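Action item from last meeting closed. Structure (218 res):
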């Protein structure tokens, strides 16, 4: 506790017919980041959106754009995601052959680098990668869809990763993504998360800005 908590609302659950309204809502809220879920229908069994939507979101907010690439061979597109306005580009460990090289390349593009692991991937794979990653994104649901339930075993993984980052002495932030709401965000933050993502919990609420505060204060 007492540590700085960041919330990154996932635009996947926004109303795309009112994308500017929903982006401005986040822009004026206590959430510091904006989470962008890019899906290609190959790495995950769903397709979300790409560059034009990202650019529209960028135009409606000055907040930190946290871009989560759930796509195969993500480095083909990294530079375009940077040009579209990303502040952080997160790739999946499972989607690249050489994660360290990919993370170095992302930093070379002038933005923060992130690496994500799926629920079945152990945090031990991140050993040796922490020095190249500004953020580790732990998936607490199977990537592909918003509105799923938090996988309980994720809390242990957060604690294990917290021990690893503390031992490594790196300033890597721990971000947790999937099924987070005001009822379980306290557990996630206390386990060691710096950043939590919330999509359905925020945009499915009657008062999204109020819900953002509830999650941050959980
Ligand atoms: C899932 C995405 C998540 C998702 C989170 O593939 O990576 O970011 O949008 O949504 P909720 O909070 O609804 O689980
Ligand atoms: Zn995500």
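Sequence:
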């Amino acid at each position: 506790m007492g540590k700085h908590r960041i919330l990154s609302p996932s635009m996947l659950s926004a109303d795309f017919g009112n994308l500017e309204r929903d982006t401005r809502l986040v822009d004026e809220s206590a959430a510091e980041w904006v989470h962008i879920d890019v899906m290609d229908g190959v790495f995950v069994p769903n397709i979300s959106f790409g560059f034009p939507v990202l650019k529209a979101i960028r135009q409606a907010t000055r907040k930190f754009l946290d871009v989560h690439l759930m796509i195969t061979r993500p480095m083909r597109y990294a530079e375009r995601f940077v040009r579209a306005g990303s502040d952080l580009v997160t790739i999946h460990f499972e989607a690249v052959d050489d994660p360290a090289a990919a993370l170095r390349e992302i930093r070379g593009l002038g933005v923060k680098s992130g690496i994500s692991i799926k629920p079945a991937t152990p945090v031990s794979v991140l050993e040796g990668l922490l020095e190249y990653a500004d953020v580790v994104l732990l998936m607490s649901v199977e990537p592909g869809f918003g509105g799923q339930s938090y996988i309980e075993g994720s809390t242990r993984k957060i604690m294990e990763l917290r021990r690893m980052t503390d031992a490594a002495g790196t300033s890597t932030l721990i971000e947790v993504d999937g099924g987070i709401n005001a009822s379980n965000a306290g557990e996630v933050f206390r386990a060691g998360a710096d950043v939590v993502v919330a999509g359905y919990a925020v945009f499915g609420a009657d008062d999204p800005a109020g819900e953002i505060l509830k999650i941050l204060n959980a």
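Note appended to the action item: Residues 10, 35, 37, 68, 177, 197 surround zinc ion (ligand 2) (CB under 6 Å).
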